[in-house]
Amino acid sequence: NREIHLASRPQGWPTAENFRLVTTDVPTAADGQLVVRNLVMSVDPYMRGRMNDVKSYVPPFRLDAPLDGGAVGEVVESRADGFAPGDVVLHGLGWREYALLDAKAARKVDPTLAPVGAYLGVLGLTGLTAYAGLLEVGGMRAGETVFVSAAAGSVGSLVGQIAKLKGAARVVGSAGSPAKVERLRELGFDAAFDYHDAPVRDSLRAAAPDGIDVYFDNVGGDHLEAAIGALRPHGRAAICGMIAQYNDSEPPAAPRNLALVIGKQLTLRGFLVNSHNHLRDQFVTEMSGWLRDGRLHHDETVVDGIENAPEAFLGLLRGQNLGKMLVRL
Ligand code: NDP
Predict the structure, then answer these.
(1) Does the C-beta of 221 come closer than 6 Å to ligand 1?
(2) Which of 22, 96, 123, 214 fits a 20 to 30 Å CA distance from 308?
């Protein structure tokens, strides 16, 4: 069994030296436990925060211990009722080839309904983040104009497509390369821009001259400032993530125009996907219907091998992914 440990805590941008590949024995199950051979694991931006030793909504990773996070694997040993070898389960002990789990922490998924990676992306937490964030937190209604940042990523690409499927009049996305901008147009975004080309404020004004009603924030900083400027009276922002500042050691310089929320009576609302589990059944039904009908696409960027998991994670922070970043084990 090989697993990735946190070797040291990064200051600023993490590097390969912050991780260590460690070989251990394959675990054996005690009563109520499962041993799972992981097939695929997720790398996610929130993991950067867990590398710091600070109190947050998820506890920090421990030094010299394996990292963890969403994974799907096959049960190879079961000492728990209701699970048998060959079952495929979703659980929270990624970053290792073999996971020892309490059966209570595992949920069976059906690998014949969707590829296993989908349970970590479009049909999993990132899909629910997009769905709940746009519709419940952002309260998007048909006929509105929506702007989403990190739009070619896992959450963002789904936000834009769900917005169109739910009748948004205009959907604008920003992303970090010409190829990503091109992909957004293929996915049905009405306008898309590369945020490196010009100040976000200018690009957004050109893409949505009449302003926006909903901003789905994955980035923070200058993107949030531009959105606050572009939001129409009573507009809403669903604050999902602020990836532009996850590696910063200094507080962000933007947004500088927060006072506009008063006059325009804006709502800026942060959220955590785990508080929206009540939407899960509705989300899975609706999302799988769109997938089946070919009305919704989900890109994946897949990296092979546990030894490459740190590089996959670092690549995610640098924007090397299109859609969901996964590691196949
Ligand atoms: P993505 O697939 O979107 O990958 C991250 C992307 O962020 C990169 O591909 C990169 O794309 C972009 N990015 C990186 N640095 C910057 C920067 N400085 N400015 C602009 N864009 C940048 O990841 P996810 O879909 O998993 O997550 C998207 C956001 O949602 C994150 O902020 C994450 O923390 C948040 N999140 C929040 C949840 C919640 O419960 N609140 C749950 C899940 C995710 P590019 O090439 O375009 O720069």
Answers:
(1) no
(2) 123
